[in-house]
Amino acid sequence: MTLESPSSDIKSPIIEEPPERRNRRRGCWLISGLIGLVILVIVIVVPVVVIKERGHQQQQQQQQQPDQSAPSNDSSPSGTSINSTQSDSNHGNKSNKSSTITNATSVVPNYPEYHNGDGLVDAYAVSKYANLIRLQTVPDDKLAKKQRVFVIGDIHGCLDEFNQLVEKIQYNPSTDQLILAGDLIAKGPSNTGVIRRAKELGALCVRGNHDDKAVRFKTYEMAHGTIGPPKSYMPEGDVLDQLKFKNDHLPMSRELSKDDYDYLASCPSILHIPSMNNSVVVHAGLDPLVTDLAQQQPVHVMTMRDIGDNGRPTDEKKVGTPWSIAWNQIQNESANPITVYYGHDASRGLVVSPYTYGLDTGCVYGKALTAIEMKSKRIFDVPCKKYANT
Asked: pLDDT, tens digit, for every residue of 100-111?
């Protein structure tokens, strides 16, 4: 019997997808796309809209009712000549004058007018031991002869890496200027070493949240001569971050000589540099809706990371929109934008935007110590040893 080969003309059947299944698959893709769009709107757009609405509402309130608040002061701690007045404002009342940031530079006075809570309106209380200069303006002539101006991120006691970075940029104190973006101390191996080296180099600085705690403890000890029981709170007033005497910043404060203390306490929470393209150096950030730099709340300036869903600054990590996003959007619409250089937010690393430069690149956690030259925007860094866990 002869078997015949299958005809080459016979073709394999084509199995077509049923219309119902094809329509169902297209519907799934459409729904996934819509869900992704909704998530994007919630994460990015909604917080910014809330911020703008907050500013509009507060502007209307100011127009309807003039501000009649007045600051009140506490006396200085007994036994010290340090200026340590504070605002008695209730920290639960969080409203601020706000609408846009356009006119901020027109209201910046000389820095000695603003210590601790003096002049803050309806703000969080400032510790009466903070000895804090809230705002310092650098005169134009101070930087007129400087060829380069560097801002360095959080050093955190990493003296070796600080020296390596200074050497790498070939820093010359006669022609260059250093500015330190806060948290000079804590977590690293040489707190006083960093302070003394910074002073030796003629570095300007701003106060970080860790620096602030050490200053408060030292001010108290200088005023009273003794330290309270470990589990008790330091009597600072109605502050958000009241410190217990067992806090690990107490031993750091006891390392400080009077000269170390004086230098660290001299670092303001805001350093305004009009001559450098209207720039500001802070440790953590600025509230995008507070028009007057003198009304920025120190607790926010030293700790904020995000703008929460309620439109207010928060120190929580990644719970809202980075404050710098809102800041850049508002500055894009400003006739006189302010550029902010800051540290504090090591979890996000180096951040470069038109009006914000984040410089905390986690040196103390074994990453890098970073500097930026303000005129050229050139960035320098050195690798760091790991001294602490995140």
From this structure: 222 233 333 344
